[in-house]
Specification:
9 helices; globular; 492 residues; alpha+beta; 3 domains; 19% helix; 5-stranded antiparallel β-sheet; single chain; Methylamine Dehydrogenase, Chain H
C-alpha cells in the first residue's frame, strides 16, 4: 500500500498545481505494462483521480509546454544566427528539420530520439552544453511530447520564432576597466583610435592624451578602420546574438555620420578598401559582408564559411578580400563579383588574425593552434609557404612591420613576439605583459607598434630598439560601481 499511496500522491500533485500529468503518465504506463501496479491502478480508479487524469492528460503542447523550455535552455546556441551543429531550434519546423546528425526527433519514440538521449546524458555531449542538466520534469515533458508524436503548433496558432533570453545588464559592485578591444593608427600617424566598451577614444600618440571620445556604441568596439584619406573612422561591434553594428564618424568634427546594421551577431573585424569605396565586415554569424561606404548599403553577403568570421583584410590593390574564420580556413574573394576564388585550408584550428603583406603577394594568419601560417598567393590558388608553432598559447593579433620584413604577434601567453618574415626566426620577445595584448597596430611608417591590453592599458614600442616609447597609457579609466554613481546623483 505504501507504493500505491506514494504513486497516487505523485499523480495528484501536478493536477493540484494545474499542470498536465504527462511526466507521470509515461512512467505509470510503463509500470502498468510491467504488471507492477495492478493494486495501485484499482486505487486510482476508486479514488476518482482517474477521471481527472484522463481529462488532463492531453499530449504536451509545443507552444505552451515545449517552446518555453527550448527558449530558456537551447535557443542561445541553436538559433538561426548561431546554428551550433547546424541545428536550429527557434521554430517547430526548424527543430524537426534537424542538423548535421539529421532530425533530433523520432516521433512516437523518445528513447530513439537524439534530443532525448543528449538531454539524459546517454549520448555525449550532454545538453545543454556547459550548463546544468535540465530538471527531470522538463526532460520528461519533452519525452512525453515526442512519444505523443511530437505534434506541432495548431493551425489556428500564431507563432513567432523563439529568441534567446535577453542578456541582463549586470550592475558593477567594484570599479571596472574596459579592455582595449581594438587599436588603429590613422593614415598620417597623428591619431591613435582605441576601441572599448561602447566607445572609441582618439589619442595623440605623441603625448598619450585623449583628444575626443566617440560614444553611443551598442557594445564593445571590436574593430576600427580609418578611411584611406583619414577623414572618417569606422567602428565595428554590436551586441552578441543580436546584430552587428558599424558606426562611421567624422574624424575632424567628431560627429556621427551614419550607423550601419546588418549582421545577425556581433562584428569582430572591419576593413576599409584602399580606394575608400567599400567597407568589409566579418561577424560571429559566419558571414562576411561588403558595404558601400558612402550610402551604407549592403553590396554582397559573402556566405561560405561554416563558423565565425574573426578577421577580414583587403589586398593592397583593393581587388580582393581575405576572410579568416573559426572554421580553420582563409577564403579569398573577388571584390567586383562577390565570388569566392579559393580557400586556404592548412590550419589545424580556428583563425583569429589575418594580414596581407605590404606587397600583397603573401598573407599571414594565426589563431588557436599557436601557429603562424604564411601563404604565397596566386591568381587562382595559393600555397602554404611556411608555418611555425610560434607562441605558447593562442595568438590574438598579428601584423606586418618594417615594410613587411617582420611579423609581430601577441598571444594569450602574455607576450609580444617579433619574427623575421622570410624565415619566421625569432628576433625579439617582449614577455611578462601585464595582461593579454588583444590588439596591435603598426604606424604608417612601420616603425612604431601600438599594443592594447585587456586591462585597459596601451603601450607604444619603437621597432628600432623594441623598447617602450613611454610608460603605459590607461586608455580607459575605471568605471565606478553603478550603485556609487546612483548615490552620487541622488546627493547632488
Amino acid at each position: 500500500m505504501g507504493i500505491d499511496v506514494s504513486l497516487l500522491a505523485l499523480i495528484r500533485k501536478p493536477l493540484q498545481r494545474g499542470l498536465k500529468p504527462w511526466p507521470v503518465v509515461r512512467p505509470l504506463r510503463f509500470a502498468m505494462a510491467s504488471g507492477l501496479l495492478v493494486g495501485c491502478w484499482a486505487l486510482v480508479i476508486s479514488s476518482g483521480v482517474f477521471e481527472s487524469l484522463v481529462a488532463a492528460a492531453s499530449p504536451p503542447s509545443f507552444s505552451a509546454d515545449i517552446a518555453p523550455i527550448l527558449q530558456k535552455n537551447c535557443v542561445a546556441c541553436h538559433s538561426s544566427s548561431t546554428k551550433m551543429g547546424d541545428l536550429v531550434m527557434d521554430s517547430y519546423d526548424a527543430l524537426m528539420k534537424g542538423g548535421i546528425h539529421g532530425s533530433p526527433i523520432v516521433p512516437h519514440n523518445a528513447h530513439g530520439s537524439r534530443m532525448a538521449l543528449m538531454l539524459e546524458g546517454r549520448v555525449e555531449p550532454r545538453m545543454p552544453f556547459g550548463a546544468d542538466p535540465l530538471p527531470a520534469t522538463d526532460i520528461a515533458m519533452i519525452e512525453a511530447w515526442i512519444d505523443a508524436g511530437a505534434p506541432g503548433p495548431a493551425a489556428s496558432e500564431t507563432t513567432k520564432p523563439l529568441t534567446a533570453a535577453p542578456i541582463p545588464e549586470i550592475k558593477t559592485e567594484v570599479p571596472v576597466v574596459s579592455p582595449v578591444a581594438a587599436v588603429k593608427f590613422s593614415p598620417d600617424g597623428k591619431l591613435l583610435a582605441v576601441g572599448g566598451y561602447r566607445e572609441v577614444r582618439l589619442l595623440d600618440p605623441g603625448t598619450g592624451k585623449v583628444i575626443a571620445t566617440l560614444s553611443g556604441h551598442a557594445d564593445y568596439v571590436r574593430s576600427i578602420a580609418f578611411s584611406p584619406d583619414g577623414k572618417m573612422l569606422a567602428a565595428g561591434g554590436g551586441p552578441p546574438q543580436q546584430w552587428g553594428e558599424i558606426k562611421i564618424w567624422d574624424v575632424q568634427s567628431h560627429q556621427l555620420l551614419k550607423t550601419i546594421q546588418g549582421h545577425n551577431d556581433c562584428i569582430y573585424s572591419i576593413a576599409w578598401s584602399p580606394d575608400g569605396k567599400l567597407i568589409a565586415s566579418g561577424s560571429y554569424d559566419k558571414m562576411a559582408k561588403l558595404w558601400d561606404a558612402s550610402s551604407g548599403k549592403e553590396l554582397f553577403n559573402l556566405k561560405d564559411h561554416i563558423d565565425a568570421v574573426f578577421a577580414v583584410a583587403f589586398s593592397p590593390d583593393g581587388k580582393r578580400l581575405a576572410t579568416a574564420s573559426q572554421d580553420r580556413t582563409v577564403k579569398i574573394w573577388d571584390i567586383a563579383t562577390g565570388q569566392r576564388l579559393y580557400s586556404l585550408s592548412d590550419a589545424s584550428d580556428g583563425l583569429t588574425a589575418l594580414a596581407y603583406s605590404p606587397s600583397g603577394d603573401r598573407i599571414a594568419a594565426a589563431g588557436y593552434d599557436k601557429t603562424i601560417y604564411i601563404w604565397r598567393l596566386g591568381k587562382d590558388d595559393g600555397h602554404l609557404d611556411q608555418s611555425l608553432i610560434a607562441d605558447e598559447d593562442s595568438i590574438l593579433s598579428l601584423v606586418w612591420g618594417l615594410g613587411g620584413k617582420v611579423i609581430i604577434t601577441s598571444s594569450s601567453d602574455g607576450s609580444i613576439r617579433f619574427r623575421d618574415a622570410a624565415t619566421l626566426d625569432p628576433i625579439r620577445v617582449i614577455d611578462h605583459q601585464p595582461d593579454w595584448v588583444e590588439a596591435l597596430s603598426m604606424s604608417p611608417d612601420g616603425m612604431r607598434l601600438a599594443a592594447g591590453r585587456f586591462n585597459g592599458s596601451l603601450s607604444l614600442y619603437d621597432l628600432e630598439n623594441y623598447k617602450e616609447v613611454r610608460g603605459q597609457i590607461m586608455a580607459f579609466e575605471p568605471r565606478q560601481p553603478t550603485a556609487a554613481n546612483e548615490n552620487k546623483q541622488v546627493a547632488q
